[in-house]
Amino acid sequence: MTQAPSSPETVSPMESALHEARKAFDAGEVPVGAVVVDSATGQILARAHNRVERDCDPTAHAELLAIRDAARAFGSHRLEGCDLYVTLEPCPMCAGALSHARIRRIYYGAYDPKSGGVDHGPRLYEQGSCHHRPEVYGGLQETECASLMQDFFRERR
């Protein structure tokens, strides 16, 4: 399943997130990848893929791992000038963490009608109790992101 990455100069943030998702797939993890980008420079501050099984940690979602690393790299727990690219609509747990981190924008690939927390399920950012509402853009490279998830679960059935 692993594909050779493109040269760093030509890889978009979503391609980088897909590369991370493929690493998760190959490791037997649900194939979700995420990258945090400094919106001012375009520099990727952090990249991660799901490590729930490996770490025996139900919170080891790609988004949480990426924002933890990005906060260290950025030197602040507030990532106000940062964007997140992720291959799957964030779950409610990750959506909450992204709000607390003050992520500026979320770009995601595949929609998740069953477990999503942004455009499906609780729609966290539409709740009055949500203090920070990042801009959200879904459906980026949706077909490729969704196919990766479908292939992963098809192999396990």
Biggest sheet features: 5 strands, mixed
| Rg, Å, rounded | 14 Å
Q: Into which percentage range does the β-strand content fall?
A: 15-25%
The gross shape turns out to be globular
Low-confidence stretches: 1-8
Q: Determine the number of helices (DSSP H or I, runs of at least 4 residues).
A: 5
What is the average of the pLDDT values?
A: 94
Oligomer: single chain
Order of helices and strands: HEEHHEHEEH
> By helix and strand content, what is the structural category?
alpha/beta
Distance between the termini: 17 Å
Output the strand order for the largest sheet.
2-1-3-4-5
Q: Name the helicity range.
A: 25-40%
E-strand count: 5
Structure commentary:
β1 and β2 form a beta hairpin. The protein has helices at residues 13-26, 52-55, 62-74, 92-100, 142-156; strands at 33-38, 44-49, 82-88, 105-110, 135-137. The radius of gyration is 14 Å and the shape is globular. Strands 2-1-3-4-5 form a five-stranded mixed sheet. The protein has 157 residues and is α/β, with parallel strands linked by helices. The protein has five helices and five strands; from the N terminus they run αββααβαββα.
Question: Tags for this entry?
Answer:
157 residues; alpha/beta; 5-stranded mixed sheet; 5 strands; globular; disordered N terminus
